[in-house]
Amino acid sequence: MKNNTDTLTQIPEPSLSRFLFADTRMNIFWTLLRVWLGWTWLTAGWGKLTNPAGVWVGDKAGTALTGFLQGALTKTDGDHPEVSGWYASFIQNVALPNATFFSFMVAYGELFVGTALILGLFTGIAAFFGGVMNANFLFAGTLSTNPLLLIAAVGLMLAWRVAGQWGLDRILLPLIGVPGAPGKLFEPPASKPKTPAV
Predict the structure, then answer these.
(1) CB under 8 Å to 182, separation ≥6 — which residues?
(2) What is the C-alpha to C-alpha distance for residues 113 and 123, in angstroms, rounded to an integer?
(3) Alpha-carbon distance 99 to 23, whole Å?
(4) 108 is a domain residue
(5) SS (H, E, C) the chain
(6) Is 145 part of a structural domain of the chain?
(7) 142 contacts: CB under 8 Å, gap ≥ 6
(8) Is residue 17 in some structural domain?
(9) pLDDT (tens digit per residue) in 160-173
């Protein structure tokens, strides 16, 4: 019989979500999704880095992003604006004045997220930052493939334990660990047993 001080601190994970997001039999699905999403980000970032006009990271850096953001500001009118007022304020007061900086962040962010996802390197974190970029594009009123990419990123964030198993996470995560469970590199040194005094 349990006493009154025993409380439920964790709700057991349903078997379906355990199978989808934590079962190694799902490796092939999550690996294919991870590589596809990574390739999508990598090609988008590479296209910005190698843009011959230099409007993302070249001598005209920020030009393309400025045009994109100004276009987003035109979507703030009407009964059902595509861009919310709070995001329009962010665009006007933060993003536009720093368009060159954000241009580099977008181009290199897409490249790094894509590379990390393809390699299976910190898969959950890479998917999170990819999802943040998708959310920002959606907030700016750009539908395109962003909803699909965001859904894929959320799936990879939930399945991070197995999504990178066929990648570098298989090697790195046991070494560095995860929050609450340090890896081999960060384990406290084992204390030597004390020898009794004679």
Answers:
(1) 176
(2) 9
(3) 43
(4) yes
(5) CCCCCCCCCCCCCCHHHHHHHHCHHHHHHHHHHHHHHHHHHHHHHHHHHCCCCCCCCCCCCCHHHHHHHHHHHCCCCCCCCCCCHHHHHHHHHHHHHHHHHHHHHHHHHHHHHHHHHHHCCCHHHHHHHHHHHHHHHHHCCCCCCHHHHHHHHHHHHHCHHHHCCCCCHHHHHHHHEECCEECHHHCCCCCCCCCCCC
(6) yes
(7) 68, 72
(8) no
(9) 999 999 999 999 99
Residue 112 one-letter amino acid: F
Domain membership of residue 164 as a residue range: 35-178
pLDDT at 198 over 90: no
What is the C-alpha to C-alpha distance for residues 186 and 179, in angstroms, rounded to an integer? 11
Tally of domains in the chain: 1
Report, as an integer, the average pLDDT of 44-59: 96
Q: Which two tokens stand for residue 11?
A: 């709700």
Instruction: Say if 155 falls within a structural domain.
Output: yes
Distance CA 154, CA 20 (A): 13
pLDDT at position 7: 73
